[in-house]
Amino acid sequence: MPKHEPPTIISSDAESEFDDVTDLCLEPLEPLKAKEQPNDSRKEDESDEENNSSPDPDSQLFQTVAEHESRNAVSILFRNVQEESQATAHSSLVGDGSGQALTASSRKQVISLSMANQKIGNKIRPCLSSVASKKRSAINGRLAELNAEAQRARTSLVDARVALNQRLEI
Question: Basic and acidic residues: which segments have biased composition (predicted)?
Fold first, then answer.
């Protein structure tokens, strides 16, 4: 039987962020669905858009993550089926939980999806690294700005204190 994880409790702020990220992850899937349906006018529109705009690494990352998550579910199913087949030693009775046995073609499909899942994981790592380094440099830049602003504030405070002391002496 598949293993179930306990539900995760999400606060309202985290939930709204989660919804935003989910929306971003799901948006790139819509063009993929459109590509599956043959439509000449869509193909022309998509090729025009691809020629006019440069790919955004963040959107590519979200698309890749969405693909990875969709394939990850199949990969988990495959691992569960393997565990069940080892436990029961009756490969003809092993199924996907629906009561039906997996056919040889289904097993091959699951294996190929598992391989594709690994390739997607390899594709995600460099994208995540790139995004992380960009975010890190943006944070370091902002910290430098804040340090400079704090230094100016300290200098202004010292100048104001000196001016106040001079007035008190007079």
Answer: 30-45
Would 93 be classed as within a structural domain? Answer: yes
35 within domain boundaries: no
What is the Cα–Cα distance from 113 to 1, expressed in whole angstroms?
21
Does residue 39 lie within any of the structural domains? no
CA proximity to 18, closest of 10, 26, 6, 29: 10
d(CA 87, CA 43): 49
Tokens of 56: 């955004």
Number of domains in the chain: 1
Read off the pTM. Answer: 0.32
CA distance 39 to 36: 9
Contact at 8 Å (CB) between 41 and 34? Answer: no
Burial environment of residue 106 by CB neighbours within 10 A (0 to 12, 13 to 18, 19 or more): middle
Q: Rounded to whole angstroms, what are the CA distances from 89 to 51, 93, 94, 98?
A: 54, 9, 9, 19
What digits encode the pLDDT tens for the residues 96-148? 555 556 666 666 666 667 667 777 777 777 878 888 899 999 999 999 999 99
